[in-house]
# Entry
Amino acid sequence: MSVITDPLEVFFELVPTGAALYAPIFGAGGDLVDFRFVRFNPAGQRLLGLPAQPPRTFREYYPGSVPTGIFDQYRTAYLTGQASTYDVPYEADGVDTHFRLVAQRSGELLVVNFTDLGDLPRSAVEQALRESRAREQAARAEAEAERQRFHQALMRLPANVALLSGPDHVYTLVNPEYERLFPARPTLGRSIREVIPELAGQGFYELLDHVYATGEPYYEAETEAWADFAGTGELQRRYYRTSFEPIRNAQGQVTEVLNFAVDVTAQVEARQQVEQLHQVAQAARAEAERQRGELERVFEQAPMAIAVYRGPTHTIELANATVARLWGRTRAQLLGKGLFEALPEVAGLGYEELLDGVLATGEPYVAHAMEAQHDRNGQRETVYWDFVYVPVHAADGRRNGVMVVANEVTAQVLARRQVQQLNQDLEARVRERTSQLEAARAATERQRRQLYELFRQAPAGICVFDGPEWVYEFVNPRYQALLPGRPLLGKRLLEALPEVADQPLLAVLRRVYDTGEPFEASEVLVPLARSAGGPVENRYFGLTYQARYSEAGQIDGCITYVTDVTESVRARRQVQDLNQELAAINEELTATNEELNKSNAQLTRTNVDLDTFVYTASHDLKSPITNVESIVLALRDTLPPAVQQDELVAHLLDLLDQTVARFQVTIGQLTDVSRLQLAHAGPAEPVVLAPVVEAVRLDLLPAVAAADARLTVAVPAELVVSFSPANLRSIIYNLLSNALKYRDPDRPAQVQVRAAHLAGGVVLTVQDNGLGMS
# Structure
């Protein structure tokens, strides 16, 4: 048996009160977080039931030392070096007594002497106090049992629960769910800044400080947190329903903060996805609405006539302003009505069959220069259209309507007809002249064919320029046909057509874009290449520039309507050249008049023979054409209905009817000519003028009605002239028929016949508002 020679060692071993030596345990941040047992004396071993050198730490054996303030006493005594005495009841961790604790630092160790005050002699008052404390301890035991049950409930909750102590927020309790957040990180005895350093800058430390300092709880339904939950070094985002609740001691001081959190990441991300999808849907709807508004603006501002018909009655569902203007109606008079109810004047012209055919087959129909009647400004006018019928489909794919895009080409058709008439007149005059003019007649015929080809179709195109850089946003086929092989869509004007860079058109476009004032011109010279890199040629266009407005009323582009009138300009110049040639011809004819006068006698005799032949031919041709008409009627009576309804057979029968009718008209005209020619000769005699004029008027009634002319006669009933009756009638007939034949197509025909007895004789006047002559 060894002998202890150090008196202090002997005193440590023999003192009847408990004594213990502790070594400090510091955390990663340098904070003192626990104590390690170095040695217990025998009295201390008996009081606490521990060995001389317990294997675990002080707080692991006695976690109740934190809420009772014992651990704070030890830590303060060690850190300050000042002795500290503390009387405290301890009813936790299997101990139920009242300790007097004296702590003093010695070197690197903490020396603690503890006395169980319950073992000391006590007076009656102390005994009563003891009993009172016993009752209090029983109550505490019950409270501790309740606390243990609450502790177990916290441990089993499917939520993250942690108890953070002191101003440094040191973990004193974590449940399994919380530990699973960071399985590789120790938590107990360490501050939250040590355990989860990546939370710095996210506001959590500040929230804990605020709750600890003020005692105000904090709750947030969706708190965003970034941390290395997977232990990979990469931060992950999660959302928690979070609460920080202050925990107070018996004195009402906040000593701990309870952190309760439920992971709601899945719900938040699901809601965010729904919100994102909702935003995408809203953006898609907004874009669709923007495009629809854009189309509506283009539709409304388009210089072409555009309308949509619905159903078998072709009810007018949409019509832009151009349609109403060209049809001579207001849109209120059109919308909601059937096409042929709103425009009865076009019924029976073939449009019904065309629309029904497009609805039935789904095939578009394209027409050029199709005739129609329209009531405009109280007058019925004959107009001509280039148009296309396109089927319109419902949402389920059924055809339920037709869209029409039309362009009035009346001016072009009338110009073409005038050119044709001019050519016919030229041919007639050339045929009446001698063979010396044959070369001129051939030249005129070539010019006539060229003019006919040039004016056969008047192309028109539409394009939409976007923004001040004039980017091609829309180009229709007619416009593209003007520039074959040149890509336009999506390109700036100067990029697509660099040859127009120095032309005045750019200044015109800029003025329209800046001011909103439209620009119209019928013949604009534009040097232009048909294809990229091709030769530049001078071309003429009818142009309309109109500003396009955004929903906010700001100009954001231009709409361009283009008609290529190059051929028309060239044709007009060719007609001018022809007129000059005719003037030269007239000079030549003047020179040959003398020679022609000599041959008049021979021509007179020849005309008599020709008149006889015309009369005989017209009479003899009546019988064969009547036979042909009878054969056509017999065919219609004989052919089965199914055969007659065949498209080709019906077309051929109609051609036969039209041919027979024209032949009969020609024979009638020949008969009239022969009758008039045979009646030219005769002696002068007194003739009452009014009956002769009335007889001619009655003969010309069909022509007057066909021309929709107004014939006014002002001839006194008693007026008598000395003239050949036949020649007088022929003169009046020719004057009136010519007035009807050469009427001006742009205004209603008006013919006036007047007669009066003046000093020199009777003056007969026939006046009209027709084409006239130079």
Notes: The first strand starts at residue 18 and ends at 26. The two ends are 160 Å apart (CA to CA). Confidence is low (pLDDT under 50) at residues 451-456.
